[in-house]
């Protein structure tokens, strides 16, 4: 008989906490993010990338859903190296 008391308490706790857990999960519709007035800095390190790779990366970052006045693309050309398949160095390509 005394063995059922902890079991009943455990069941009672689970039954009362279940609605709290479900409400914390917020099972409502998905909200779209709010547009904020913040700055964004995109740091792009490049070492031996070719023109195609750099163009795709920069085009992708330029098309981000941020105001162009608040977006800064910071391109770092690390080294004066000619990569395989390139005819000039990465800083010259950029």
TrEMBL record:
It comes from the Eukaryota. GO terms for biological process: chitin biosynthetic process; fungal-type cell wall organization. It catalyses: [(1->4)-N-acetyl-beta-D-glucosaminyl](n) + UDP-N-acetyl-alpha-D-glucosamine = [(1->4)-N-acetyl-beta-D-glucosaminyl](n+1) + UDP + H(+). The keyword Glycosyltransferase applies. InterPro entries: Chitin_synth (IPR004835), Nucleotide-diphossugar_trans (IPR029044). Its main location: membrane. Its EC number is 2.4.1.16. It holds the Pfam family Chitin_synth_2. GO terms for molecular function: chitin synthase activity. One of its GO terms (cellular component) is cell septum. It is a multi-pass membrane protein. Keywords: Cell membrane, Glycoprotein, Glycosyltransferase, Membrane, Transferase, Transmembrane, Transmembrane helix. It is found in: Cell membrane. SUPFAM superfamilies: Nucleotide-diphospho-sugar transferases. This is chitin synthase. It comes from Suillus luteus UH-Slu-Lm8-n1.
